[in-house]
UniProtKB/TrEMBL annotation:
Gene name per UniProt: ITGBL1
Protein's UniProt name: Integrin beta-like protein 1
Organism: Equus caballus
Locations listed in the record: Secreted
Leader peptide range in chain numbering: 1-23
InterPro entries in the cross-refs: EGF, EGF_extracell, EGF_integrin_2, Integrin_bsu, Integrin_I-EGF_CS
Disulfide bond as UniProt keyword: yes
TM spans (from-to): none
Length: 494
């Protein structure tokens, strides 16, 4: 048995512990769960009630929308640069009011989402001086917006600063001149800002990926990842930074971010016709100096003219027909469709790329590369666009070993297409790989299930000769874009 004095100490400690626990808010009571993983002893309604701010109706935001409710206790989200805190995740310095770009207008400190103003200042953002030395005329002048309207007719002027009308206390009217009204973002049906699928900035909704509409009320029928992929331009920018992506389609701006007017177009807004305007007046309608055609911001000059804007006459002793004939060679197209013909001589696309060469640009060693850029599968050399395979290898890209270490049954099992037909009935199987019929040159794909004739053409060439057809879609080489790889995005010709 314990000594009496020691028992008294234990009783005193127990009573103090009990008193301490009774002071803990109910939402933090350790008795709501017993043991790890145990069921919550509260009903769902009671649990959510404890996680909701006082005065909020049922269905309102839990934990101020900054955390999750776990059996009546708020588990706050981590955010940048720190964490939300407080029993209901109500505290974070970044939720304090700002004015003219400064938290608490630079005249106070942020404490749990509220500004504590310095002496001489007041207001939700500490933006109002308590004593004003300005005349009413001077004060009103400082409160006028760019249209000379005092506080945008959405507030009152106090000592040169606008106090926005927010009688309902929701703070949806704001801005230095009360120019922003986020009530414009409220969806009429759901009564949520941007339908709950976006953020509102100055009365305009910026939708989450996968949603669109003035109030983000429409859902896309493709995944956000696929939407982003379709809108990504060759230089890796979304809509070339000249438009917005809506469900995988770019909506190009008529005016660029500098405020300059332009004719911007293209699948990813990559084309800007302003680059074709005449040298002497970039705002005129005289494209390519009147001596060429504008193709995605690049001038294709008429015979007899050259220069970035077709501004220079070219003296050539040959007629246009003679010049083109010299550039044709064995192909029906000048420079094999891979270059520019000037006075009977070809300049191959792209300038300076030695993979395309020949008197009429007839050799294209890019055709020897696979999608990873490996030449002839690493098992051969490229000669004028054709692979010469090493011993023991064969195929268009030297991708097939002649020696096979698997049985015929194993090989065939790897060559069956989705419908169970060997190489889709359009090729033969070798060592688990399909070799498509050479007679049907347009058949391709892992299981010979693709028809290259489905790819877009330009000048009679599949993918314009500037890319490869991958199961109905053109995969353009660097510097080219467009459904048929017909648009050159690189530098001009020398």
């Amino acid at each position: 048995m314990l000594p009496a004095g020691f028992r008294n100490v234990l009783l005193l400690a127990s009573s103090l512990l009990f008193a301490g626990l009774s002071a803990v808010p109910q939402s933090f009571s350790p008795s709501l769960r017993i043991g790890p993983g145990a069921a919550c002893r509260l009903s769902r309604a009671e649990s959510e009630r404890r996680c909701r701010a006082p005065g909020q109706p049922p269905g309102g935001a839990l934990c101020h929308g900054r955390g999750r409710c776990d059996c009546g206790v708020c588990i706050c989200h981590v955010s940048e640069p720190g964490v939300y805190f407080g029993p209901l995740c109500e505290c974070h310095e970044w939720v304090c009011e700002t004015y003219d770009g400064s938290t608490c207008a630079g005249h106070g400190k942020c404490n749990c989402g509220k500004c504590e103003c310095d002496e001489g200042w007041s207001g939700d953002a500490c933006q109002y001086p308590t004593h004003c030395d300005l005349t009413k005329k001077k004060s009103n002048q400082m409160c006028k917006n760019s249209q000379d309207v005092i506080c945008s007719n959405a507030g009152t002027c106090h000592c040169g600063r606008c106090k926005c009308d927010n009688s309902d206390g929701n703070g949806l009217v704001y801005g230095k001149f009360c120019e922003c009204d986020d009530r414009e973002c409220i969806d009429d049906e759901t009564e949520e800002i941007c339908g709950g699928h976006g953020k509102c900035y100055c009365g305009n909704c910026y939708c989450e990926a996968g949603w669109h509409g003035d109030k983000c009320e429409f859902q896309c029928d493709i995944t956000p990842w696929e939407s982003k992929r379709r809108c990504t331009s060759p230089d890796g920018k979304i809509c070339s930074n000249r438009g917005i992506c809506v469900c995988g389609e770019c909506s190009c701006h008529d005016v660029d971010p500098t405020g300059d007017w332009g004719d911007i177009h293209g699948d990813t807004c990559e084309c800007d016709e302003r680059d074709c305007r005449a040298v002497y007046d970039r705002y005129s309608d005289d494209f390519c100096s009147g001596h060429g055609q504008c193709n995605c911001g690049r001038c294709d000059c008429k015979v007899g003219w050259y220069g970035k804007k077709c501004e220079h006459p070219n003296s050539c002793p040959l007629s246009a027909e003679e010049s083109i004939k010299k550039c044709q060679g064995s192909s029906d197209l000048p420079c094999s469709g891979r270059g520019k013909c000037e006075c009977g001589k070809c300049t191959c696309y792209p300038p300076g790329d030695r993979r395309v060469y020949g008197r009429t640009c007839e050799c294209d060693n890019r055709r020897c590369e696979d999608l990873d850029g490996v030449i002839c599968g690493g098992h051969g050399t490229c000669s004028c666009g054709r692979c010469v395979c090493e011993k023991g290898w064969f195929g268009k890209l030297c991708q097939h070993p002649r020696k096979c270490n698997m049985t015929e049954e194993q090989s065939k099992s790897l060559c069956e297409s989705a419908d169970g037909i060997l190489c889709s009935g359009k090729g033969s199987c070798h060592c688990g790989k399909c070799i498509c019929s050479a007679e049907e040159w347009y058949i391709s794909g892992e299981f010979c299930d693709c028809d290259d004739r489905d790819c877009d053409k330009h000048d009679g060439l599949i993918c314009t000769g500037n890319g490869i057809c991958s199961c109905g879609n053109c995969e353009c080489w660097d510097g080219w874009n467009g459904n048929a790889c017909e648009i050159w995005l690189g530098t001009e010709y020398p």
